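Structural prep section.
Before we set up the soaks we want a predicted structure of the protein with pyridoxal-5'-phosphate in place, mainly to decide which crystallisation condition to try first. Input record follows.
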Amino acid sequence: MMEKSFDERKANFDENYPRILEEIAQAAVKAGRSPEEITLLAATKTVPVEVINHAIGKGLSCVGENRVQELLEKYDALDKEHCDVQFIGQLQTNKVKYLLGKVSCIQSVGSVKLAKEISRLCQREGVEMKVLVEVNIGREENKGGVLPEALLECVDEIRTFPGLQVAGLMAIPPICEDTASICRYFSAVRQYYVDIAVKRMDNVSMNCLSMGMSSDFPEAIACGATMVRVGSSLFGKRAYPQR
Ligand SMILES: *Cc1c(COP(=O)(O)O)cnc(C)c1O
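Run finished without errors. Recording the tokens verbatim:
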């Protein structure tokens, strides 16, 4: 696919953004929820910073990057004053240091080892970091995240690490052919979220349930998502798809 021009990508966004907001609102209302309960995070991998800033100018208030190198390349130019920046991709422990002070939340904490490293560096730098614990809800070998049966124990350990605030859960279910299957995954994650919330553990707030992407965010909202991560439906198809 040819690289799209900035103008083309901006036009894509302008056309798609109101429609996505409307679809979010409709899905929320249909589920008996308020649209304000749901945050739209724009997944901005491969999107040039000029286009992201254009989107922020149009009201976008939260973006997520999933590669450290790409985040760093865009970071200085990014309109951070008007937009919350989060990290949503798989993260190697040796790259954590680049994210501190730059992102408000690391959504993809899928192991105690990674959480421990974030905590160690937070203490060293004297900063705090919000984290979501990623659940590998489909038990997929090629995906990050904690297996469901280990989740509670993992949250209980991570919450004790200085500098970290456990703020919720994140999940990327397997690609499903039908909505019933995807909803089973989303509902299972939602149930863990609720089960953990009722335990009222110190240093754990289940404020954010991040699930749902371009292909399935209405279903995720129906199943309780408080944040959806939408990329290609906002900015157009990526020339080089990557997760
Ligand atoms: C790319 C990405 C998304 C968005 O995917 P789309 O299908 O383009 O909406 C959401 N979450 C993560 C972690 C991603 O890497």
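Observations: Residues 43, 45, 66, 88-89, 172, 213-215, 229-233, 243 surround pyridoxal-5'-phosphate (CB under 6 Å).
Flagged for discussion at group meeting.
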